[in-house]
Write the structure tokens for this entry.
Amino acid sequence: MAQTHIQIHEDDVGMRVLYPAAAAPAVLNDLAQAQAEAEANRLPSGFWSDVHSIKEPEESFRNSGLTLKDASRALCLLPRIRTFSSGYGGDLSLASAPDAQCYGFGAHLYIKLEVTEGALDAIWFDVTRTTKDERCALRAGLERLDAATPLVLADYWMNMGGLVRDTAFMDRYFAELAVTSERMAKPSPPPRKQGSWIMRLLRRG
């Protein structure tokens, strides 16, 4: 059963995004630049000294011919989630949309249409721990959007990008999503009891 309200951290906004296919060269170049910067800025601690700012391409949905009506019709196979909010820290409702154009099953899988004054501005999505059927529904939604206007997909979490109508790319992409989902589904090992290493040292002594 789909959720009726999604709350996410602002860091997850727009990290898996769709653009008109005409923007593919610029989008894929920015994706490669983001990956290169992540490696260059990685600290020994595993954190980063700086983060990449995603560069929006000149091509937009405003001039692609894809309307909000077309996009929402393409996603009608997914349940609509009308309340959507994002934020940080303990407050995930700093940016709230009470009548959101969001389609999916919950915070673990959804496609978000960003709208300004009734016009489609952007399309992005997120997917984490999912079932095979849910991933199939996501792919169907993306392909129905692509049928309305050709799209390029950029996933900044997974460093993957390509045209939605490129079947080979989409097969690889969804295979990686399945692997990620299975990894998230595995139970974490039980935490080591505090002081257990001290007891081992004492026994060794």
